[in-house]
Amino acid sequence: MNLLKREAGGSLAEDRRVQALGVVAVLALAAVPFTTTDALTGLILTGLVYIMLGVSWDLIAGYAGQISLGHAAFFGMGAFVSAWLTTPGGAGLPPSAQLPLLAAILVGGIAAALIALVIGPIIFRLTGHYFAIGTLALAAVIELVMLDRRDLTGGATGYYINADIGLGEMISHGDMMFLLTLLATVITVAVTYYIVKGPAGLGMKAIHDDEDAASSLGVNPLKYKMYAFVVSSFFAGLAGALYAHHSLYINAQSTLAVTWTVDSLIVVILGGMGTFVGSFFGAALFLLLDNGLSAIVGGLATTVEGILIILFIIFLPSGLYGLIEDNLVEEISGSGADTDVDADAEIAND
Predict the structure, then answer these.
(1) What is the pLDDT of residue 301?
(2) TM spans, by residue (predicted)?
């Protein structure tokens, strides 16, 4: 039975029932810090961070077709730059470098985007698997440099962050960070949706399908790759800054570890690549597997989780979003085709 309807070429997000469900979900999440334990609040915050990482990674990989394995580097740099600005003394910086927490978190995201802006023209000289390997190498180099700079990162001891945005006894620092992370997640999804549905999104899809053909039609591949790379890195850095200031402790070995990239990739694969809504389902399923299996199979949790993910990729390659779309969504004819023609013409004239 089809519960939802979607215009040909449209998105489920345009369905008013889906929009209403999204508003209800956001309101329910906003109540989490005041109705649950700190442990559960922290777990759900991690899920929101995974959604931000999944949505941002899907923009560069799922839509622009550039498989980046360096997402962890931008996540980690956003975390450290924001930590240096709220706790400059730990890195030997002068007190005048200190910024308010909100400004520091924003600067963390901007710093990650600037790194992407500088290295983008160089790394995009590589294509296909070479690009993926290049971004993985970049992340490894940044991790090694940061590990070596004990004066900036604290080395193996880590970096303790001194920040408090709580409102006295009414709302603790952790609760405020949860609400900020929820707000950032909503902004990440909204901005990504706007980009994907606009001319820039069509340009990314064009180079994803056939870069040479898109280039022959007047689409500038480097422009759209850079667009996706910089925006994706900004949101990864923002997620890192929020996560760091919730935990109030970061360590170069864990914060810059490639596991953040792998987890982002798994979230997108489980939810459905190229469908930013899929990251919601992917993050929820990943958290369930990551935390629930330990209680059932104990020390074999990681092994069972890996096997389940492999089976998922083999038998459900379009992810949970594809499963929902196949069974619950009816595609109807609409005016989407006309809109695409107009947008294509806009890209060609760009």
Answers:
(1) 74
(2) 21-51, 63-87, 99-124, 130-147, 177-196, 226-244, 265-289, 295-316
CA distances from residue 144 to 119, 137, 150 in whole angstroms, order as listed: 17, 11, 11
3-state secondary structure 144-161: HHHHHCHHHHCHHHCEEC
Pairing of strands 249-250, 329-332: unpaired
Q: If you write DSSP's letter for every residue of 291-333 in order, what string do you get?
A: HHHHHHHGGGHHHHHHHHHHHHHHH-TTHHHHHHHHHHEEEE-
SS3 state at 276: coil
32: left (phi over 0), alpha (psi -120 to 50) or beta: alpha
Q: What gap in Å lies between CA 227 and CA 225, rounded to an integer?
A: 5
pLDDT band at 8; cut points 50, 70, 90:
low
Interval 50-74: pLDDT, tens: 999 999 998 998 888 898 888 999 9
| Dihedral angle over CA of 90, 93, 95, 99, nearest 10 | -90
Q: Give the integer Cα–Cα distance in Å for 110 and 107.
A: 5
The model carries a pTM of: 0.86
pLDDT at 1: 57
